[in-house]
Amino acid sequence: MESGWGCISVYFGDGDATQSIISVEEPRYLGLPYVRTLLAALAFQPNPLRVLVVGLGGGTIPRYLQSCFPEVMVEVAEIDPVMVELAREYCGLVEGERLRVLVGDARDVIEAAEEKYGAIFLDGFGEDSIPSHLSTGEFLEGVKRALLPGGVVLANIWGSNRNRLYGRMLQTYREVFKDLYVLDVPVSGAKIFVGLDECREVDHEKFVEWVEVMSEEHGLDSDLEEAVSGLRKGADERPYFEERLRD
Predict the structure, then answer these.
(1) Is residue 105 over pLDDT 50?
(2) Nearest CA to 1 among 106, 63, 85?
(3) Continuous segment of H or E residues that includes residue 241
(4) What local confidence, expressed as pLDDT, does residue 236 receive?
């Protein structure tokens, strides 16, 4: 963790990769392209009311949601209690009636959930990859069961240039969700998977309009045009044939 230019940066492991960039004073500041793209994909479900975020990091996503969507209840599943304390002490994370952090494994949190969610963000990473038990079909089936009708799963996935399991992750999402869309994150090579519990034909121009409205109303930054222009069906994403991931 380091501080500079009014922001705090949180790193994985030895500092080779940035986990979060946070402005304590401005919760709507989104310093990383993948976070902006991930939140833009919320256009698939712009009024989720109840949200689960898997992976706290510096608290960028829950703080943004808390600021922009005052009616939304946000829960966060974070396995590392040290990360929770750092976010509270240094990164401006303030819990309350609309934001609470559940310390524990995401699978246990989802299984124990008493109410379902309109949107679930999957952003849980270890130092070099998504934990294997948060990538399997069994985990994603549990995530799907935790969705309200019309709900959406928004997942941050490293692309094939950094992820040898990308093809299998893609296939797993294809098999679990009734519909899947893919967005490219500008510059980084990461992907955003949008998993839906129903088949939905999304008009590209309409999607761009949704994102533009969200950008104007909720302060999303300006590099989203490239990301949304590449919106495509998961069925069209390569590779086409891989074995799904299992427990």
Answers:
(1) yes
(2) 85
(3) none
(4) 94
Half-sphere exposure of 81 (CA within 13 A, CB side): 2
Query: Residues 124-133, buried b or exposed e (16+ Cβ, 10 A)?
Result: bbeeeebeee
Alpha-carbon distance 151 to 149, whole Å? 5
Provide the 8-state DSSP code for 236: G
Q: Name 86's Cβ contacts closer than 8 Å, sequence gap at least 6.
A: 1, 10, 58
Q: Which of 215, 216, 193, 243 is nearest to 36 (CA)?
A: 215
CA–CA separation, 33 and 220 (whole Å): 10
Percent of residues, the chain, with pLDDT higher than 70 = 89
Helix (H, G, I), strand (E, B) or coil at 200: coil
| 8 Å CB contact between 69 and 63 | no
CB 45 within 8 A of CB 202: no
Instruction: Respond yes or no on whether the N-terminal peptide bond of residue 239 is cis (omega within 30° of 0).
Output: yes
Tell me which CATH code domain 30-236 carries: 3.40.50.150
Are the C-beta atoms of residues 11 and 31 closer than 8 Å to each other?
no
Nearest Cα neighbor of 57 from 16, 98, 90 is: 90
H or E segment and range at residue 83: helix 81-90
Residues serving a catalytic function are: 123
Q: What pLDDT is stored for residue 221 in this prediction?
A: 62
CA dihedral in degrees (122, 128, 134, 135; nearest 10)? 100
pTM as predicted = 0.92
Looking at residue 6, what DSSP letter applies? Answer: T
Give the tokens for residue 80.
Answer: 């590392």
pLDDT in tens, 175-228: 999 999 999 998 788 999 999 999 998 888 888 888 888 788 887 765 677 778
